[in-house]
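Teaching note: in complex prediction, the entire set of molecules is handled at once rather than each chain in isolation. The prompt given to students was simply: 'Predict the structure of this complex.' The entities are:
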Amino acid sequence: MISHLSEQVSTTYEKISNIIHHTPVLSSTALNRTTGSNVWLKCENFQKVGAFKFRGACNAVFTLSEANAAKGVATHSSGNHGQAIAKAAKIKGIPAYIVMPKNAPKVKIEAVRGYGANIIFCDSNQKAREETLARVVEETGAYFIHPYDNKEVILGQSTAAWELLQEYPELDLILTPVGGGGLLSGSILALEAFKASNPNSNCRVIGTEPEQANDAFRSIESGMLQSLTDEQIKNPTIADGLRTNLGELPFHIIKTSKTEIACVSEESIINAMRYVWERFNIIIEASCAVPIAALLEKKITPKYANIGVIITGGNVDLDALPWNRH
Amino acid sequence: MISHLSEQVSTTYEKISNIIHHTPVLSSTALNRTTGSNVWLKCENFQKVGAFKFRGACNAVFTLSEANAAKGVATHSSGNHGQAIAKAAKIKGIPAYIVMPKNAPKVKIEAVRGYGANIIFCDSNQKAREETLARVVEETGAYFIHPYDNKEVILGQSTAAWELLQEYPELDLILTPVGGGGLLSGSILALEAFKASNPNSNCRVIGTEPEQANDAFRSIESGMLQSLTDEQIKNPTIADGLRTNLGELPFHIIKTSKTEIACVSEESIINAMRYVWERFNIIIEASCAVPIAALLEKKITPKYANIGVIITGGNVDLDALPWNRH
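The expected output is the structure of the full assembly:
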């Protein structure tokens, strides 16, 4: 399964490379000195819609057959995936139907609307979302694109690590956060594809997760797909992009490739987020700070010489910064 | 004078290009749609020490004769120039003496110290700074590098616009903020140098300034070098990097080249700063928001098709953001 998918990484990249941004890579002397490694941030916060999610949405939308695309695409999302599907559909010239909880932040609703998508509001719970989505698909005939449990979405996400590896073939470690697992599993595929033509690379991928949303860690440990606990749902991690259960296809790829997961505390996430804001002058979501926290807290051993980190997105509410809440 | 200096832009760039960062250029569909132009941000907030000032400091330090460099370099600064000189001197392997007001932000003091510079504290007024600097130069024999009224500093600053023009030769406008005038006059030199080999370019440079620190605007209008007014010193602009009087050499270059200055309100600066944070996911100082404010407020007419903006720096106190002060 993995090799079958990884063989499609480079053609996926060729397909979407004219639509996505080739995002810049930043480094900082301070972080390199602190970690004792060369650390490269792949800045997907500069991707279209401000997040790597555009890569997966774009590939999924542009891979649809004409028949499947004819009636548009649909998804449910309160976050970046909804914006990404809306924007990709707009570029493709097909309708998009985005199911959003009615208490979603106004700025996110406006962003989705700004891409010309149809918004269908629902109550703010998983059941209402899924039922509303099913009804929308039934009524419109639109094609449902899952945010991460979707082969084409995962292949789209793989192109971030793929771009990074083309530019920095000397990497010996790639770190990503894990929410639904689309980015982590995509990065595993990208590395597999890279090694096919670079057999001397000893690079590996490690996933990073908040302790307060460690379902991927527990899934790997137990060998069975786990969900967030009731306590984790009640006291959610500040890394709001990672408050998602790991998907089945991502879990399969992560498990088969024997990929490890490192977990970090809430406090270390806030510290790492502020560290990146101050040292790199870039705005990153709390989710992106998780791999940086793992580095700063020395949760990744042994030491790697050249580390790439996928910075996933930058959609932040500037009126509610975590260091201003206390 | 201008053509004599502009002939040195490309050799300056060759001299320092291995020491400075070649900074990325970002754009956003939202800003392009709002302005009706293609706008490219040259991100000097990702430059070493987090500001374009490193370019000028670097060129000034690396242009010194061995005799002049032997005893080190000195300057007075509470901001980015001090860090830039400290870092450039460290790379060159010579001592740096930075005169700083004793109430300078701790984080800036630590940054300068982190580059291994000697810090000499003084009272927080212009007279104390200048007297302390004179004493330090007298005692150490260090070479004084002025933050903007210095030919080599201006040539170093010219390399930001020079890099941008190499990458985007289709630009028809370059915007910079104006404080002491080093960046604006450097950008004028870079454009002059670019036109020498691109005679069909119809690009021009316009400076932008807070109304609350409009000494450059008044200097151009009157033909005589003007200072900040007492009222402007008492109620300083939020763009703290621009609370500086225009220097003599920058004024000469700006005046001779008939460069225009557009002025913007304090409110528009804060709005533009937040706009860039939200739309570009980058951290910029208030000073960098001044040219963006001029675009958003339609202070620049007629409309230009392709606009480059030099984003000067990203050193911001995250605990005192302007939209959290009210």
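Point out the following to students. The two ends of chain B are 47 Å apart (CA to CA). Residues 54-144 of chain B form a domain with the Rossmann fold fold (CATH 3.40.50.1100).
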